[in-house]
Amino acid sequence: MAEHHLSLILDCAKHITSFNNIYKSGESVPFNRGMELCGKTVGIIGLGHIGRRLAELLKSFNVNLIAYNRTPKNLKDIKEVDLLTLLKTADIVCNTLRLTPQTKNLIGLKELTLMKETAILTSTTGGIIDLDELNEFLKSHKLFGVGLDDVDQQQVPKSLIVKDNVICTYHRAYDTNESENNRINLCIDNIESFVNGKPINCI
User: Fold this and answer.
1) Distance in angstroms (rounded) separating the CA atoms of residues 112 and 51
2) Helices (H) and strands (E) in the chain, counts
3) What are the DSSP calls for 39-105, one per residue?
4) Would you state the pLDDT for residue 162?
5) For residue 120, which of 64, 65, 198, 40 has the smallest C-alpha distance?
6) Phi/psi at 160 (nearest 5 deg)?
7) Rounded to an integer, what distance in angstroms lies between the CA atom of residue 29 and that of residue 117?
8) Which of 45, 94, 130, 160 has the highest Cβ tally under 10 A?
9) How far apart are CA 53 and CA 60, in angstroms?
10) How many beta carbons lie within 10 A of that of residue 126, not counting itself?
11) Is 65:13 a contact under the CB 8 Å cutoff?
């Protein structure tokens, strides 16, 4: 998941998908400069396993890391801030939260208007960003790029999908051979631990 999220960031920053589509269409490539990550402020919304792993991957790019989490994590090299500060400050905003009744449509028009016009917005969880409001926002405002996974959980406006600076992937951030093996091993560990009277991953 974290690697896919990083891929969305890099794709937005370097216009990879956009340039690829233009090249294959036979059209001339427009003069559209990319963005370097080094020195940028990256705001991670959610410091669960995926958020922490994404932070580890991003450190190699020499970025400044800030994060919003409901409960403090006190992690090294990550400054925790409130959500509004993160949205105002970050050059790259990354949502890694799970979808819950509390996080549904957490980022709407009000929150989007706080972001920089030069910012990148990415999310690997559907339902956190209100896509209808994002679509309306982009009609009169700018973002450098938007990268979304898990968009099958919402009805995505067609006018949002066709924008050159918007990338959508169909709920594939988790889908790797390694991830499948990890899920199988986790199930086996859960069953064995329960049979042995030492249940793990209890909810």
Assistant:
1) 20
2) 8, 7
3) T-EEEEE--SHHHHHHHHHHHTTTPEEEEE-SS----TTEEE--HHHHHHH-SEEEE-PPP-TTTTT
4) 87
5) 40
6) -80, -40
7) 23
8) 94
9) 12
10) 18
11) no
Tokens of 93: 């905003």
How far are the Cα atoms of 33, 95, 171 from residue 161, in angstroms, in the given order?
21, 19, 15
DSSP 35: -
Residue 140 CA to residue 136 CA, distance in Å, equals 7
The 3-state DSSP composition of the chain as helix, strand, coil percent (nearest 5) reads 40, 15, 45
Is residue 16 within 8 Å of 6, Cβ to Cβ? Answer: no
Tokens 């400054």 belong to 79
Q: What angle do CA 7, 13, 17 make, to 5 degrees?
A: 65
